[in-house]
Input
Amino acid sequence: MTTQRTTTTPRSGALAPLAIPVFRALWIAVLVSNIGSWMQTVGAQWLLVDEHAAPVVVALVQTASSLPVLLIGIPAGVVGEFVDRRRLLIGVQAFQVVVGAAMTVLTATGSMTPALLLTVTFLLGSASALQLPAYQALVPEIVPRAAITDAAALSSVGVNVARAIGPALAGVVIAQLGVPFVFAANALSFALFLVVLVAWRGYQRPETRAEPFVDATRAGVRYVLHAGVVRRLLVQLAVFMVPANALWALLPLVANGPLGLSSGGYGLLLAAVGAGSVGGAFVMPAIRRRLGIGRVVGLTSVVFGAAMVVVALVPSLPVVLVALVIGGVAWIGVVTTLNGTVQAFLPAWVRARGLAVYQLVLFGSTAVGAALAGVVATPLGVVGVLAAAGVLTALGAGLLLVSGFPVLTDRQRAATPMPLSDVAFVPDDHAAATGETLVLLHWTVPAGSVDEFRARAARLGKSRRRTGARDWNLYRDAATGPDAWVEAFRVGSWQEHVDQHEVRQTGDDARMLEAVREVAGEPRVEHLVAVGVSSPSSSA
Output
């Protein structure tokens, strides 16, 4: 495969990105890998159930696979922003092949203990956490801009096809051949993905300006902290995910206990969820267009919580299967709606880092929710805890009713470069170029417009912080007069301030600046660049 980015798609529609050879090969490889991962999860959980492990140990399989994102998610986003993404994925897949093979051998020889199983699961989760932001940021590089949404939807479909196939296939393999063969199949799925990546010869790393790791990390975190829309979406995600993950953590115990199912029956339950998720991926776009993002997230949260209550309280296989299919539709409605909204809202310069924070919240909530469910279920019982978690999941949707949902129409998210003004020279020595930069904007505000100016300036201040300002404030200039105001913000380096103007500003940011200009006119700008001064000697 030698195709780089395609600028046109041969056909339109939800399946159009599959006409691009590179995307199609990667999509199939990721699908197979996800199937293997689901098989591995089912095999690990069922191995512990067969050994009569405590509920908390069974639930910790979910935690062990999700916790790494909580620990390395943000650094992984920084790495994925600036390194050669193809090479990173090749290295991670090779590591997973080795770990998967070792897992197979240890299980086949009877050497796999619960502690070792959780450790190996944690290693595989760490590898997945490292590659996920890079892979998500890679997709927009190989499909046309107009097809990015369709490509993201296909990725969600692939994940949920794997959820439908993987558990059922694992149940059959466990029943016929045993758990070691499930782990071997997972290792082979990693190997297939590795072969596809090695065969892809045409990838060219995008040109990006290297940033110090710590500075790049701080910039990504700073953006999320000061982007109100992104914060609101992440809070909604966490409120849903923490209680909702009790279903995934405790479902094997429900299968083995109240429903009296074997590993094959447990796979059937997960396949029902997967089937509902696949169907939901196709119907949700039309539902979102009709109801809007906020109503879809609220409604599907309530439906998923109700499905959890039914699974917990009705020990009837047909009823539980129907509830899980409906729950699968609701699950995909919440997760893909929030994911797609965040992905579309994030500006290009911070997309991988922003998605890393999203994955941190997603998998961190999964780890915390699964661990809590397991710990509480040990003394209180699986049925009661699962039903209570379902009620909490539905109540979490009430957050939408209390605080509303961000209005995302008429937002301008494309980069809008703005040339630097009032710059007489460009710092040319290392100390000046890397030193802190203080920017002062002198505004003249008519007496009757002070309140409006302060309100608009406050919104502009948030924009400054999102794009790089480490601090920001508004001052009155007592020496000049009552109409003299000074906006001051500090950036980590001159180069980062240049990036604010050339790369990081979106149409929304430009609109906020223009709103202040409408009130206070054109400001006089000063740029003060720190050059570093040696401390005087003690004898001076």
